[in-house]
Amino acid sequence: MDPLSDILTMLKPRRLKTGATDASGDLSISFPPHTGLYCYAVLEGACWLTVEDGSCPLRLKAGHCVLLPSGRPFRIGSDPDLAPVAADVFFAGRSNGAVVTYGEGGDCFICAAHFDFDGPDSALLLGLLPPVVHIDDENDQTAMRWALDRMMAELRTPRAGSDLLVEHLSHLILIQALRQHLTARDGARVGWLSALADPPVASVIAALHAEPARRWSVAVMAKIAGMSRTVFALRFKARVGASPMEYLTRWRMMLAAEALRQPHTNVASAGMAAGYDSDSAFSTAFKRVMGCSPRKYHSKISGVTLPYAPLS
Fold this sequence. Notes:
disordered C terminus; about 20% strand; Jelly Rolls; alpha+beta; 2 domains; Arc Repressor Mutant, subunit A
């Protein structure tokens, strides 16, 4: 598989709920810290998004999407300076999948999907995404526009099979948003998603995913990228937000953790699959990234998401 498919497969996105708001007039809604990832798409009209990270408010227009993977509180409304109402108050009593009409509607129609991730160590990769992924590029809009139009139709007029169709449309919009983010080449963006749009860095990430157990070094990676070792290391860190070896270690540990979640996998085989000949070296790396030993992880993983330690 390609790296984006690899990562999404590892994250195992699962839609928790979907809904839409058709609003008119003055309205601002505040959302508390959250788990997982929110995906918002403006289907008609426009609104403002403010994430509590000190950044400027974003103007979202029809056809725009935004992904919020950081879990930070945020506000959506007609005016970024308007006093907000809490989301749990505004949506009280509303069922999952419902369209909430505020005022007479018509100024802004926005749909939202909240995804959780069944990959219990998804924070390792979500942590390398920017806090806001804003998709406003005009490239490849046909697929996104079709998905948004279908989503709006199903939410406004539910029919037989609508729940399942909305489920699949939510995933389609998520993947298409990630794709379009890749095509919007912005040198200021940082994270593995943006790095996949940088051909030299993307070629190395693809190679790491294809052969995670290979005896990798920065020199070998630099040769694949067609750069000097120093230039490559600096470029990779600038694009991904982690050094080449840090990224490789995170990816290896996610693969090892996935293996350890299987009932018949032992620590030694998980370590070998991740490129470690020594159990002690594997255990040290695993504990540094995942926050516990692989043996403890293996024994306690059923139904439990264990804490992890960020790479320093």
